Amino acid sequence: MDSSRRLWLGLAALLIASFGVLLFMGGEIHRKAPPMPERVLGSNGTLIYSQADIQKGRQVWQSMGGMQLGSIWGHGSYVAPDWSADWLHREATAVLDGWAQREASAESYAALSAERQAALRGRLEARMRLNTWDAATSTITLDEDRAAAIVAVAGHYRSLFGNDPATAALREAYAMKNDTVPDADNRHALTAFFWWTAWAATTNRPGKNITYTNNWPGEPLVGNRPPATTYLWSAFSVLFLIAGIALLGWHHAVTHGRSQEPQQLPATDPLALVRVTPSMRATAKYFWVVLALFLVQILLGAITAHYQIEGQQLYGVELSQVLPYSLTRTWHTQLAVLWIATAWLGTGLYIAPAISGHEPRFQRLGVNFLWVCLLVIVVGAFAGQWYAVMQKLGLEYNFWFGHQGWEYADIGRFWQWFLFIGLMLWLVLMGRALWPAIRRGDESRSIVGLLFLSTVAIGVFYGAGLMWGEHTSLSMVEYWRWWLVHLWVEGFFEVFATAVIAFLFTRLGLLQAKTATIAVLFATIVFMAGGVLGTLHHLYFAGTPTAVLALGASFSALEVVPLAYIGFEAYHTWKLGHATSWMARYRWPIMFFVAVAFWNLVGAGLFGFLINPPLSLYYMQGLNLTPLHGHTALFGVYGMLGIGLVLFCLRGLKPGLVWNEGLLRTSFWSLNIGLALMGLLTLLPIGTMQLLAAIDHGYWYARSADFMQKPIVELLVWMRVPGDVIFSIGAVAFTWFVMRLWMAPRHEAQLPQGSRAAEK
Amino acid sequence: MIEFYPQIRLVHIAAVFASGGLFFLRGAGVQLGAQWPMVAPLRYLSYTIDTVLLTAALMLASLLHQYPFVHAWLTVKVLLLVVYIVLGMFALRRGRTRMARLGCWVLALLVYALIVSVARTHHPLGLLHRWAG
Q1: How far apart are CA A524 and CA A1, in angstroms?
Q2: Chain B residues lying within 8 Å of A307, measured CB to CB
Q3: Are B109 and B91 in contact (CB under 8 A)?
Q4: Maximum Cα–Cα distance across chain A
Q5: Buried-most residue among A466, A594, A619, B41 (CB within 10 A)?
Q6: What is the ipTM of this complex?
Q7: Rounded distance, CA A587 to CA A359, Å?
């Protein structure tokens, strides 16, 4: 059996085993999700909340932007509080204040002596953690003190989400528009949902001394502290990481240079000879859309960041009344995925006929049709979200056409289906163009097959976003949502990135297909070994059992293992970029691929692992250390890859043109320096300060207005401006470069003799 | 964040003078036919100063609730800034003849002075408002 076949079998076995365990854990999460009670009663039998209230409250929360305005169980955005932690702290404080007033005639709990406070805390901890859920009657019963506290906290939220002047300053601090939820009944329902998430976070699982959310969030008042398992599995995850690095190091030492046969390099650029077919030419519009979406995404990002300073305004303009924070953030995060995905779709459609040399019938029609569909999806989904967040759509239609509120899976279900069908159409277009190359059976067959399989996985796994319904339990929604997000970005995107870069090098004649196939197959096995079960590391505190924490911590640590060696890949890529004189034509795509490797190490590897062990994430989840990882990994890796791929395609789409090196140099360095400054000047320092606050005072404080409005924090938010300006210059330079290829092209033939050599 | 107002204002003013001073020197160098004004380190220094200047300006606008296109004097400042940038580009690089570069340089310095006077007086006409009545 040759090594390629062995690796294919190994990959198949790995995927079957990993997905088997992942599905089993899905069953466990379903079985052990926090219960949704039919009714919540006071000890005197009065109804506090019904199941309908809680479920309607979730719909209201989703319609106003859900995770894009504050967070639940740590998942969401960072300016407004984590509503679960905020409610929990307010309810605990209200109960303590009530006792202090009744039993000690004190003004509040804070006015008591330390000894008395400790006694009340002890009582509170026992009461709040006690599980009074009765499965037989589907009822939760609460004592009168808690019932009274719930009324008080609910009053605060009704004020906050309405237009009450008493909470106007807080709305501004949280970047909420006035009348976020104008309907009073909906506001009441919203409080039911927030209460339920806080209840799950502070109530012990039956027969255990750990809450449904594994004691998250940290809250000293109710004894929510990291459970022993977080320490245990954090330590083991580091152990597994070091063991993985050692094993891969050994493998590299043994196999390095084993199959490096001397390669006869082509004298001229083989891709320059590729015939550009009509469907390939039609992909140009995909790249124009990429640029437009990228620029809009940056603009929305700047507005979103500014809302952290002026919660409802943009330099004197009352922007929140027409374009509130939750919308700008929704579109900012969605456009990131959309433009990167569009770049990849366009690249796939461009290279498929180039690989096979076959232009199927009506391929151009399909490419154009898909492009129109994508535009309709973007415009339609965004319009629905605007109507939802502005509370003009109504809850009845929100799930299908409005805002689902799940970060990165925000668009209405109708638009999700439309996008899924669009991705299937993309697969059909890719498959029919690639089919002759796959059937040929030459030595490229395997790598073409792997490339195609990764595109199939990208398309098919979007289907995970269709697995939840309107009332599916929160834990299960999170489970499927991370199937979609995690398996894309830390699984199939990685495979696609590795395969497409290796594939391009084989087409350029710089790598032998056999060597590239084995390298890519091996890399895929390494990525997927950690990647599939690593999905669970997003679910440590999402109402899941402890096994999720153990598996998630262990396997996600393995995800970092290949990144520790990415320097090899970066150097290899850079070296291939200098393999022949004509490779100078691809200097900038290669540089962007090197940047992909760099940010894979820094953004995904270092900043990813920073928040990865359970003990770290217990405190860091939802702090600014999360977007530090998000920005540097998502743009740093996949954004840079998207730009590199666009450049590669442009070489073929507009052959014989002289590239403006100055613009590309400006773009490359500005994007990289801007991204680094964004992380180092703002996100890392604020995140670190928040971390210390969360450890010292509880998670709620690190996310509170009191903390986030500290002068030093606001100053650090302003420090985003230099990085963002530099980054924007890079994006504009890149756009200008592409536009000039169409508007003011300079042909190589127009160059004086001496200067043409440099270009070639 | 008003606590940091004096420091931010100081940084803004320092960046204004650093930016204007550097432009004056580079422009003078260009008029004398020197190569050094366009070397990379000086260009990057200029970009860095201008980025600091812009950041401090945005912070001040937000702190004082005085905004371009809302308050006239700041609107004039922003519009004059655009004119200054365009003139500066022609003075240093894009001007085709020596006279064109010289003219743009002098005009740019005059616009710069007007921007500073608008900032000092918080009036759209700057110091000119005394003569304008």
Answers
A1: 19
A2: none
A3: no
A4: 94
A5: A619
A6: 0.87
A7: 29
Best probe of the A interface among B67, B74, B75, B77, by most A CBs < 10 A, is B67
And the tokens for A588? 């900038």
Q: How far apart, in whole angstroms, are the C-alpha atoms of residue A209 and residue A201?
A: 12
- pLDDT value at residue A455: 85
Q: What is the pLDDT of residue A259?
A: 55
Inter-residue contact A67 to A406 (CB < 8 Å):
yes
Look at A315 and B55 and tell me if their CB atoms are within 8 Å.
no
* Domains of chain B: total: 1
Q: Is residue B130 part of a domain?
A: no
DSSP secondary structure of A655-681: TTBPP-HHHHHHHHHHHHHHHHHIIII
Cis peptide upstream of residue A217 (ω within 30 degrees of 0): yes
B51 domain-assigned: yes
Structure tokens at A587: 């200097």
Q: Is residue B80 part of a domain?
A: yes
Q: Which residue of A has its CA nearest to B3?
A: A711
The Cα–Cα gap between A183 and A187 comes to 6
Q: Which residues of A touch B (CB under 8 A)?
A: 309-310, 315-317, 711, 714-715, 718-719, 721-722, 725-726
Owner of token pair 């002068």: A711
Place of tokens 């490419």: A367
Distance CA(A703)–CA(A699), nearest Å, equals 7
Of A341-355, A505-519, B107-121, the least confident: A505-519
Banded pLDDT at A614 (limits 50, 70, 90) = very high
For residue A50, count other CB atoms closer than 10 A to its CB.
Answer: 16
Rounded Cα gap, residues A464 and A66, in angstroms: 19
**Which of A315, A291, A290 lies closest to A303 in space, CA to CA?**
A315
To the nearest whole Å, the CA of B73 is away from the closest chain A CA by 14
Contacts 24+ apart (CB under 8 A), A439-444: A442/A513, A443/A512, A443/A513, A443/A514, A443/A517, A444/A355, A444/A506, A444/A513
Amino acid at A567: G
Q: What is the predicted pLDDT for the residue at A752?
A: 54
Query: Which residue would you say has higher pLDDT here, A445 or A745?
Result: A745
Q: What is the DSSP secondary-structure string of A4-73? A: HHHHHHHHHHHHHHHHHHHHHHHHHHHHTSPP--SEEEETTS-EEEEHHHHHHHHHHHHHTTGGGSSEET
- Phi, psi of A36, deg, nearest 5: -105, 105
Question: Which residues fall within 8 angstroms of residue A182, CB to CB, at 6 or more apart?
Answer: A162, A163, A391
Q: What is the pLDDT of residues A262-318, one digit of tens each?
A: 567 788 888 878 889 999 999 999 999 999 999 999 999 999 999 999 989 898 889
CA A301, A484, A51, A27 torsion: positive or negative? negative
Q: What CATH code would you report for A578-760? A: 1.20.210.10
Assess contact for A667 and A645: CB atoms under 8 A: no
Extract the tokens encoding A280. 């390939």
Interface contacts (A, B; CB < 8 Å): 40
What does each C-alpha distance from A388 to A273, A342, A394, A417, B22 come to in angstroms? 51, 25, 7, 19, 51
Place of tokens 């002098």: B106
Q: pLDDT above 90 covers what percent of chain A?
A: 73
**Domain range spanning residue B74?**
2-122
**Cα distance between residue A233 and residue A169, in whole Å:** 42
| Least-confidence region, from A353-357, A428-432, A448-452, A539-543 | A448-452
* CA distances for A486 relative to A371, A416, A465, angstroms: 26, 17, 12
Mutation to test the B interface, candidates A303, A307, A718, most B Cβ within 10 Å: A718
